[in-house]
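hiii, so i know i said id send this last week but things got crazy w the move. better late than never?? heres the sequnce for the chain we talked about at the cafe, plus the structure i predicted for it. fair warning i was half asleep when i ran it
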Amino acid sequence: MSGAKIESTWGSSYRLVAAEKWKAKSAAMGRDVTEALVNYAQPRAGMKVLDLASGTGEPAITVASQVGAQGSVTALDLSSELLEITAGRARQRGLTNLSLHQGDAHYLPFPDDCFDLITSRFGAMFFQEPVQALSEARRVLKRRARACFAVWGTFEQPYWQSTFGVVVRHVGGPALQPGDSDPFKFSKPGSLSCVLHQSGFSQVDEQTKTVPWTWPGTSEEVWEYVRSVSTPFQPLLKRVPAGRWDEINQAACREIDRYREADGIRFGAVIVLASGRKS
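okay and structure toks below
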């Protein structure tokens, strides 16, 4: 899939509207994943950081608050529209050390050896050529610097099974089309580590972690949100006959409600954290 096509898909109007509509609750749901990645990456004051596939701005915004005025964060994404959401969030927080760059992780527009740290949350699994993209990440890192990634674990976990898993159980067929973008590309233990090694990284580390993943609202909101923003599952949703939607919507909301607690819908998220160092 070409960069232009990916940008068009990921920056499509329905996804952008949903990202804007649900940005506060989405940020709340993703906060613990961001915290887990930032704690893993350990940004320090004064660092120059690159955040790949930043989307609507995390962990770039959190990292920018940690590296301070003497440091800087560059948020890179294919979608200029999503980066505009990042810009608005940064302005609200008064951040002046965060810059935005529309670009492709496979062809980074930066010189060699210029960043102290690279981060990416839920981005690496969508790189069309992961070895190329991670090799580019290694190229722009300074010697001894790290690249740190958070990706989704298995599809067989509450958030995905209570949403798109319900659709699969009703209409059959695969959840994802073969050859399309796969959020679970690196869910198999060791798979992201393998790509990091192939890309020339050393001191590779990988760990699977379960963190809170809580939606501060209703099951209906979760279902609307996830249908709107989860681009790889759009072919699955298009397979649903019009007459089946009421049945599926009700079933999904029932499944999601199984995880309801007093403060919201508590799914938990199984994620993989992985890193490598440039020798």
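btw The radius of gyration is 18 Å. thought thatd interest u
miss u guys!!
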